[in-house]
Amino acid sequence: MSQNKDLWVWPTTHNQTHENHLPKRFGQLKELNNIARESTQNTRDAWNLKHPDTSPSADDCAVIRFSIGETDKDLSKYFSGLLEARKKLAQKDGARHGNKYSDIPDFTKTDWLLVQDVNTMGIQGSIDKRDSDFWSFFLNWGKSNKAIQGAANSGSKGVGRITFPLYSKLGCIFALTKREDGIYLGGYALLNSFVDADNNRTHDSYAIFADQPNTNGNGTWELHDKSLTNEFIKDFKIPSFKFNNKDSLGTSVIIPFPRDDGASVDESYNQIKAALIETYAPLIIRGEMKPKVGKEEINDQNIARIAGQVTEYFDNKDFKNCAEEYIDFLRTATYENECEEYEAVFELNDYCDFDSDKISEDDNYKINQALEDGEVVNLKIKFPIFKNGNRHESFIEACFKKPNEENTGFEAYFRNGMSMVKQGKVLNNKFHAALFCREPEIAKYLNVFEDEGHTMWVMGEGQKYEAAEVFKYDREYFVRPVKLCRDIFSHLRKLVVDSKTEVDEVSLAKFFEIPEEQDTSDKPKMPKIERKKKLDVAVSQSSNGFTVSSKEKAILPKKIEIRMTYKSHPLLTKVPYKPEQMNLNSVEIVSKSCE
Question: Which helix or strand (DSSP H or E) is residue 242 part of?
């Protein structure tokens, strides 16, 4: 090692130290799932930069490739400087850092995971400005790498990025990007801060694969020269950036010495395929994304077959049970949406109010008839998004179908082709369902309301503040579209799942009137209702609750009070829940058109 120049720089600080907590926080994630998810987000966003105002041609798409490589050549020189830093940390506190930094890989056999995108623009931004997309990509691992949020249609929170260096035994990555002005090579490594008392200096919690800091003091770095870059490309067997056999631009991320979890190469490839299909199936079906894992490309023609082959690697157990069938449902729904073959189109008001009770009998009949015929129901819901006082027209597409076997349906929510894998489900496996939010305005808007990992929509104070103050969505309407997307299948369920039957208080009495005292040894007695009392309200009972609404020409009271008492049904021989297991917040009271 002493004969090699240090290719990694461990920056010094002004005696301000902090520990790198990210590995502790994210160490339990399924690394390959997150790598596949995050890298495909980045590829999608980089491809979008090529088409800011126009639609791409039919044969244009983003391409991402995953491959595992290895060599018997000693490549230890590419880690010089980093290995010395890790040795100091191991010696500093063996109990604290020893296991983390003392392991030295076998450089007689170097292996790596390569993730490469082509037909993109490469990593854009000035190499002389710290706040550019270029340096945000190379330095902001663990937070957003998008300096320009407008380009981040798939994701911008950046949490998934930390999985890349965590997947390496050395906690590092290399990145090679080809853009119009040339090819650039850099790298990043996770470390802990270190106080070097002998040399009166303090080192930061990361290292950079670079030559030296820039003399302008702006926080950027002088990258290694072209000769080293060319040597690196050869040694790590980086494929040429080609799209349709023509020179292209793009980016390669190399993760050296992937963590040994006991999985074979084929098992690792299957895990990546499963993550891609489970998360990005609509993009693959539409031909906007063509992933290649090992030597196999995943495309519209083979995605269902591959889904059947990697079933055991899917995360969601409900998806495992119906993967091929659900992919076929997605393909049909996607094709019909592209041709605008909708059973119905609904136009909502400024507040995105969706009232299933106001759907016409004709639309209701078409929807239910299509379901009975085993067809896919496609609905287009149009609504406005208000930003900076301007009205932007947008839409979502809700699709559903009866599964081949009862109660084996799967429900998914997609924004810009990416699945919100933790979004709450409401259809209880009764239907295959998919919500597509592919229109650009709604895709950018929903991105603001996602959790750190882009897995679900949330409306916390942070998201609301960002929506109103940063992105300037109008406060009067700014949470309405996300509520619509979150609740759309709850609204539609009333059309096709709940069989409403108007009943009076006599029929409901057995549910609400329970004797205060009962002798459990005797047969329970039901209360007697002497006469039927006519009310000015109609009570509808459904599988998920009760609806109380006024009849025509009703004399409305000045006030309506609703009280609920939780009791065990008298016909039950055993109480199914303990008191502390009851979720009293699970009941929702919704009032509409009330003053």
Answer: strand 242-243
d(CA 427, CA 487): 11
For the stretch 150-176, pLDDT in tens is: 444 444 444 567 888 989 999 999 999
pLDDT tens digits for 278-303?
999 999 999 989 999 999 999 999 99
Q: Under 8 Å CB-to-CB from 125, ≥6 apart: which residues?
A: 132, 133, 134, 135, 136, 137, 147
How big, in percent rounded to 5, are the helix, strand and coil portions of the chain?
30, 20, 45
Q: What is the DSSP letter of 370?
A: H
Strands, E assignment, 34-99? 62-71
Integer Cα distance of 574 and 566 in angstroms: 15
Q: pLDDT (tens digit, 9 = 90+) per residue, 115-163? A: 999 998 889 899 888 889 899 888 877 554 444 444 444 444 445 678 8
In 3D space, the residue among 159, 164, 166, 167 whose CA is nearest the CA of residue 175 turns out to be 164
**Torsion angle defined by CA atoms of residues 496, 497, 502 and 505, in that order, rounded to the nearest 10 degrees:** -160
Percent pLDDT > 90 in the chain is 50
Polymer length of the chain: 595
- CA 209, 186, 166, 19 dihedral sign is positive
The 10 Å Cβ neighbour count of residue 100 is: 15
* Cβ neighbours, 10 Å, residue 339: 9
Q: Residue with structure tokens 């008001």?
A: 349
- Residue 244 contacts residue 59 (beta carbons within 8 Å): yes
How many other CB atoms sit within 10 Å of the CB of residue 397? 22
* Tokens representing residue 482 in the block: 């996300």
First to last CA, the chain: 78
Residue with tokens 């060599």, as numbered in its chain: 71
Spell out the long-range contacts of 47-56 with Cβ–Cβ below 8 A and sequence spacing 24 or more.
Answer: 47/117, 47/119, 47/120, 47/288, 48/151, 48/153, 49/120, 49/121, 49/124, 49/151, 50/119, 50/120, 50/121, 56/288
**Secondary structure of residue 407 in the 3-state scheme:** coil
Paired with 242 in beta bridges are 247
Measured CA to CA in angstroms, residue 29 lies from 34, 167, 201, 309, 528 at distances of 8, 10, 35, 23, 58
Query: Rounded mean pLDDT of 354-374?
Result: 89
Residues pairing with 436 in the sheet: 397, 414
Our measurement of the distance from residue 370's CA atom to the centroid of its chain's CA atoms, rounded to an integer in Å, reads 31
Q: How many CA atoms are closer than 13 Å to the CA of 230, on its beta-carbon side? A: 4
CA distance 288 to 47: 10
Question: Looking at residue 102, what is its pLDDT?
Answer: 81
Please, are residues 273 and 310 in contact by the beta-carbon 8 Å criterion? Answer: yes
d(CA 554, CA 193) in angstroms, rounded, equals 73
Give the DSSP letter of residue 96. I
Whether 365 contacts 377, CB under 8 Å: no
**Rounded distance, CA 353 to CA 371, Å?**
25
Helix (H, G, I), strand (E, B) or coil at 546: strand
* Structure token digits, residue 57: 């041609």
Burial of 86 per CB tally in 10 Å (0-12, 13-18, 19+): buried
